[in-house]
């Protein structure tokens, strides 16, 4: 427990000992805490940290903690306002510390108990298995062998409760490792530029899938993620346009979801490609809006018609003032710019109700459906429609 006020330390000690905590060390400043931690090595499990302290404050302590070989989990305790506590949590997360929560002072039983519970859960959860190490050659081989498939996640219109489009999400059916998710290979695909040939294959796959669904009476639109790392080839829009034409697909049924390019040097080419895609009739959607990858600057520069609010501001927004305000402001912004707004990551009824009330146009999230194999979509649509018939406007 790091706090400069002896009264708070004493109170915390009594509460924790009442909850069965056996060993409790106190420090009155960040620097004292550090020397204790250095002396007792790995054995400290949790650090309860005040934010405002003379000498070294909690924020500086976080930096030093993150440099330790075995940093303990951390929870913040502060008289400071909510915003500062949240900022401290984000900061500690960014430094890869295990953040268990934040409580305001003086602490109570009720507030500290969930933190201890979380500590227990983390301690018993087995460390996630060895992360898959995928190599460039394997990735290249997998692309050639057409091992990449798409799953499709429904996006439904809130007004009509009908299917608006589906987002295509890549999966790798690996001959040895089984199904692999994009977080294990997209970065490698981007850094090796294999993302370009891979995505072009996926685009074609999804276009053909639209046709297949049509033969069973399902007419929908598809949204595809275009990584900024592949938006360097100025021929791309023409190729995609020819592909759509060859399959007799109206480009307005194709949505390209894009995030901001990191490298400003590519900005002109990026803008050129996106503008051309738009001119060919494809729909452009800004993905992950509100995160570092998509900014207000894009809104002015890019010709797009849909804004996807990142799930960081949607999931749990019904319970969180800050998220809700960001969501509300984003909806207002989208409306004033005449854009469709998609709320991403709706998992619970309260958040569904909230985005409905705020006037979002489209919802995507586990509450509606997880991403599905192509063959499962028609049945899902039938079931969804029969469930929502009565509620349609
Ligand atoms: O469901 P999920 O785990 O599929 O996707 C994780 C992330 O991978 C998302 O941010 C999504 O945008 C990204 N992603 C999924 N499929 C593709 C794809 O085909 N191309 C690119 N560039 N990104 C994708
Ligand atoms: O970055 P992008 O918007 O493309 O991300 C889509 C990702 O979000 C996919 O990985 C998809 O599986 C995931 N996703 C979609 N809906 C939900 C949801 O309700 N909860 C969570 N946790 N993830 C979701
Ligand atoms: Mn997306």
Q: List the uncertain runs.
A: 125-130
Shape: elongated
Mean pLDDT: 89
So how many helices? 14
The amount of helix comes to 40-55%
Structural class: alpha/beta
Biggest beta-sheet profile = 8 strands, mixed, barrel
Number of strands: 13
Distinct ligand kinds = guanosine-5'-monophosphate, manganese (II) ion
Strand order of the largest sheet: 4-5-7-8-9-10-11-12
* SSE pattern: HHEHEHEHHEEEHHEHEHEHEHEHEEH
End-to-end gap: 57 Å
Percentage of residues in strands: 15-25%
- Cα-atom Rg, whole angstroms? 25 Å
Main traits of this protein?
393 residues; alpha/beta; 14 helices; binds guanosine-5'-monophosphate; binds manganese (II) ion
How would you explain this protein's 3D organization?
This protein is of the alpha/beta class and 393 residues long. Helices cover 42% and strands 19% of the residues. It contains 14 helices and 13 strands. It has helices at 6-18, 30-40, 58-66, 82-94, 109-124, 136-144, 186-191, 195-215, 236-246, 267-279, 296-301, 321-336, 349-358, 377-388, and strands at residues 46-50, 73-78, 99-104, 148-157, 163-174, 178-180, 222-226, 254-258, 283-289, 306-309, 340-344, 362-364, 372-373. The strands form two sheets. An eight-stranded mixed β-barrel has the order 4-5-7-8-9-10-11-12. A hairpin with a 5-residue loop joins strand 4 (148-157) and strand 5 (163-174). It is elongated. It starts with 5 loop residues before the first helix and ends in a 5-residue tail after the last helix. The relative contact order is 0.08. Mean pLDDT is 89; it is low at 125-130. One guanosine-5'-monophosphate is lined by residues 169-170, 181-183, 186, 195, 199, 202, 225, 227, 371.
């Amino acid at each position: 427990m790091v706090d400069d006020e002896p009264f708070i330390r004493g109170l915390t000690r009594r509460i924790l000992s009442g909850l069965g905590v056996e060993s409790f060390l106190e420090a009155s400043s960040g620097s004292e805490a550090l020397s204790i931690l250095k002396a007792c090595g790995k054995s400290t499990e949790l650090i309860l940290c005040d934010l405002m302290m003379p000498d070294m404050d909690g924020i500086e302590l976080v930096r030093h903690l993150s440099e330790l070989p075995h940093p303990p989990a951390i929870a913040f305790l502060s008289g400071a306002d909510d915003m500062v506590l949240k900022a401290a949590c984000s900061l500690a997360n960014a430094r890869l510390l295990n953040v268990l929560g934040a409580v305001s002072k003086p602490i109570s039983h009720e507030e500290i108990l969930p933190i201890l519970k979380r500590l227990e859960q983390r301690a018993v959860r087995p460390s996630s298995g060895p992360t898959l190490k995928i190599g460039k050659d394997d990735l290249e081989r997998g692309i050639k062998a057409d091992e990449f498939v798409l799953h499709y996640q429904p996006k439904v219109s809130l007004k009509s409760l009908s299917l608006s489009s589906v987002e295509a999400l890549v999966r790798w059916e690996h001959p040895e490792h089984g199904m692999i998710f994009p977080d294990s290979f997209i970065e490698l695909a981007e850094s090796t530029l294999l993302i370009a040939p891979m995505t072009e294959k996926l685009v074609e796959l999804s276009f053909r899938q639209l046709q297949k669904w049509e033969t069973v009476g399902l007419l929908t639109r598809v949204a595809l993620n275009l990584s900024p790392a592949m938006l360097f080839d100025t021929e791309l829009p023409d190729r995609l346009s020819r592909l759509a034409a060859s399959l007799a697909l109206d480009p307005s049924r194709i949505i390209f979801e894009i995030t901001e390019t990191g490298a400003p040097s590519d900005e002109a080419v990026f803008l050129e490609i996106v503008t051309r895609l738009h001119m060919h009739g494809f729909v452009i959607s800004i993905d992950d809006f509100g995160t570092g990858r998509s900014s207000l600057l894009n809104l002015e520069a890019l010709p797009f018609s849909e804004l996807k609010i990142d799930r960081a501001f949607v999931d749990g927004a019904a319970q969180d003032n800050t998220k809700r305000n960001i969501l509300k402001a984003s909806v207002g912004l989208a409306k004033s710019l005449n854009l469709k707004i998609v709320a991403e990551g709706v998992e619970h009824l309260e958040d569904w109700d909230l985005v409905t009330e705020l006037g979002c146009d489209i919802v995507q999230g586990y509450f509606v459906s997880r991403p599905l194999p192509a063959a499962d979509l028609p049945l899902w649509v039938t079931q969804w429609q029969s469930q929502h018939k009565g509620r349609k406007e």
